[in-house]
Amino acid sequence: MNDLMITPNIGLKEIYVVTSNKGKIKELTALLGRRLQVADIDLSEVQSISVKEVAIDKAMRAYSKIGKPVLVEDTGLYIDSFNGFPGALVKWVYNAVGNDGICSMMKNAKTRKAYAETCVCLYDGLKPKVFTSRLSGIIVESPRGNKDFGWGPIFQPNGHKETFGEMDRKIKNTISMRAKALAKLKKYLISN
Prior knowledge:
Layout: E1 2-4, E2 16-17, H1 22-32, E3 36-38, H2 51-66, E4 70-79, E5 86-87, H3 90-105, E6 113-123, E7 129-139, E8 155-157, H4 169-175, H5 177-191
Parallel strand pairs: 2-3, 2-4
Antiparallel strand pairs: 1-3, 4-5, 4-6, 6-7, 7-8
Helix pairs in contact: 4-5
């Protein structure tokens, strides 16, 4: 477990973030603006396209392993032409075919519409607290930019000309589904 340096302690004194994704850790840290612990533990994931189902299940299992408040964030990419697939399974699709492969699979798609959805689940052993947000956009024809991790270079949010991969991180962190879900969590931590 690694300690991340951050400033104000709001809400729970100690929260363990369950992830091994360094890009996600950096973004969570910046968006929450607080001290977090990283629990890099190996957990299997329930196979579902629902980010909410994945996040809740993973948070409860992580808590049972470490016995401390845990934060699990899961983000999915839901492509209209694929009836919402891959959703929460996007990590596995990305690892198998990459961004070029996802774009290639959409070559003859009737629509490039998609949305990204983030679910943040905070579990302290009592009841899961769930915070979600969704951002609509399109899947571009080929990856663009290298400023973001994972499938960011192929997702262009509605109202923007840049993909997450091309977008300045400060801009992304004001519009993204992750930023909005974490803002809900932060508000909850402050008020509780």
